[in-house]
Each structure stands twice: as C-alpha cells, then as structure tokens.
Amino acid sequence: MEKGVLRAAATRSALFSQLPPAETSRLLDASSLRQFPAGQALFHQGDVPEYLFQILSGLVRVTQLNSEGEQITLRIMRPGDLCCVAAFRQRSYPATATAIKATSVLAWRTNSFVALTQQSPALADNVVCIAGDRTREMLQRATEMTGKCIAQRIAASLLRLSAQAGVRTPAGIHIESPVTRIDLASMAGLTYFTVSRTLSAWQKQGLVKSGRHRLTILDISRISEIAEPRIGAG
Q1: What residue intervals traverse the membrane (predicted)?
Q2: Among 15, 88, 122, 193, which is least packed by CB within 10 angstroms?
Q3: What tens digit of pLDDT does each residue of 39-66 get?
Q4: What is the total count of domains within the chain?
C-alpha cells in the first residue's frame, strides 16, 4: 500500500478526529512510516517509551507480564489504534506490543508528540478520549473477572475480540487467524481447556464455528445475551 494511502487512512482514526487541516498536516509531517514483520516487537514492557505508534495496517498483540511470570493478552490492536497511549508521559512501556501479522505504523518520537499536544488542544483532547476509552475497557474487564460466571466472561471477551480483530463474513464474524484461543483464554482470565470446552459446547448449539486455526461467531446476538443477560430473562 502506498505511503499516501496509508497516511490518508490514518487521518480517519480517533487520533485525528476533528483536527483542523493545518494541525493534521503538522501531525503527519512529524511522523515516520515504519514496517514490522510478523513476530517483531514494536516495544517491550519496561522499555523507555521513545515512540508512540498509530497502526495503519496489520494486527498487534499487546501483552503484559504478570507477577507469576505469565504473558497476559490485554488486547489486539487493529488499524486506527494508537499504541501505546498508556505510555504517554510515563517512564516505561507498561506492556509489550508484537506484530502478529505484517504491520505498518506511523511513529512519533514521544517528546515531539508531547510538544504537538501542547500546541493543539484538539489533539490533546483526542489523546485524553482515547486514554479514557482504554481505561473504561480495563475497568470493565476487571469487573468481568470478579462479577461474572465463566460463560459470561468468555462471551464478553469473544465480543471484545470480534471488535478488535473480527471480519464480517456471510457466515458470521470471523476472528482473524493470528488471534488464538490462548488470547481468548488470557483475556477472559481462564484456562485454555476451560475456553475450549465452552466453545465446543457453543459450537454444538450453533453459536460459533471453532477450528484449530479459525473461530467464527455465528450468532452474535446470542453471544451478546450470554455476556450481558437481560434482567428477568430465562
């Protein structure tokens, strides 16, 4: 994809929302286009945050090493996402970001990006909104871990994955193949076997179609009902 096409796609993201043309140009001019092959890290947890990245194409898995030494999948980032906004003005990246397919990004040096936000209240507002959305997502996940049953947690995480890495097809919403059941289990805070057992049961009910390298949500409305049961339903 040509650089001009990628840059045009970037301006349709939340980071560029409502920016005047002159500020859009300054933001684009301050960036550089970078490519990451599948398997390469954009940055590692604990590194000094030298860059912020706007994903233009591809997919990125964001993981965090927990106190038990396990890599926990926090989210899958898709084109349009700003990665890693949590490192904005922080001393280190709080997570590791790895391309799970060939990925193109716009990159800004952190100090240059901070200077741009100081010059543009609209850009600063966009960053605050993006950070707020991510915070709400993490709070929602924390609530799910403590207040929902296993099926609800899996359904909620499946919906989240469908929004982050799903492709709508005639059969349903297909979760792109670099995303694995291990990601789903990690996001739900459950074991791989628990998730596999639940998906097998849902497949028999016609809710999903699950294979070794593919996962398709066939009945998104029913999965949504499992994630958020209606009061009095059942």
Answers
A1: none
A2: 193
A3: 999 999 999 999 999 999 999 999 998 8
A4: 2
